Amino acid sequence: MKYKFISILLLFILFKTSYSQTVDATGKISPIKKKSMVFTLPIASYKYYSGELYQNMHGDPNKEFQFSLGFYDVGIQYFVINGFAIGGSGSFKNSGQGEFKETSVAMGPMASYYLQICCSIIPFASTGFNYTLTESEFQTTSENNTQTNISYFGKIGVVYMTSDKIGIYSEIFYSHNTAKQNNNKSIEGNQIGGIFGVKIFYF
Question: What is the pTM of this model?
Fold first, then answer.
């Protein structure tokens, strides 16, 4: 009975906050209202890799800083209710050099909850997973290699709206990754880091 009451209370709070986010504090239409969309474009990121999956032969972890104005790792989400959005991301890459050819396909769902606490500041939290399949081959030897990677992640961040539809955001994230090559033993690793970028709301 206690857990049932808590569940009903949480659903009521979610409905109440979602309903209240149709307009912001100034009376303008909220960018996180139902039927809106949000496009996430990362610009810069810092990632720290650890675990057997990312360590070298000496056991050293890996670190990476990336800055790009391109559309890598773009996310698209749709608000099914005020404040709550579902969607995901996907990518396709095909490359080759001489006899070597490699194809990589990645996709995964993500769910996010946004809470507009004032007219220009919107905290958010997200969770989801990504699945990546990479196939490589040497054409002359017919030697094929297949690798799968599954990543489960969680992130929290905040958006600062610079206009009605555009905001800059920063977030911190953690992900647990598992890779398997040619049905061999799985190798695991972790990522933690931060991302800075732009979010565009369409409503």
Answer: 0.75
